[in-house]
Q: What sequence folds into this?
């Protein structure tokens, strides 16, 4: 399996583990018990910054990391206040972002 597949599998396992902990994950998120998970497929990112503009919580930044295409890639800000709204994922033209909650 490729690396992207491995990452998706791991994220899926974490997601389902979180779901088993709480009967109502949405309620748990609202109570601050579970953080939404934002996953970036970095190798597809062009660093265009549209997701940065879309995030109402200013929780995405273009970091210092370069991908194999030579672009600096988007990532969560260190002090992110992500609510899991998924506007960033909707905005990204390259389908880089997945939001799990
Ligand atoms: S919108 Fe997509 S391609 Fe552009 S910086 Fe954000 S994640 Fe990268
Ligand atoms: S899911 Fe919403 S709050 Fe979280 S990083 Fe994306 S746009 Fe920002």
A:
């Amino acid at each position: 399996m490729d690396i992207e597949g491995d990452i998706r599998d791991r994220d899926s396992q974490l997601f389902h583990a979180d779901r088993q902990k709480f009967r109502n994950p949405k309620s748990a998120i609202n109570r601050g018990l579970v953080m939404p998970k934002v996953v970036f497929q970095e190798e597809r990112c062009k660093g265009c910054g549209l997701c940065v503009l879309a995030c109402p919580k200013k929780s995405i930044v273009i970091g210092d990391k370069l991908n194999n295409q030579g672009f600096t890639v988007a990532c969560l800000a260190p002090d992110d206040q992500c609510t899991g709204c998924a506007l960033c994922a909707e905005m990204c033209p390259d389908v880089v972002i997945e939001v799990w909650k």
Observations:
- The two ends are 25 Å apart (CA to CA).
- The chain has a mean pLDDT of 85.
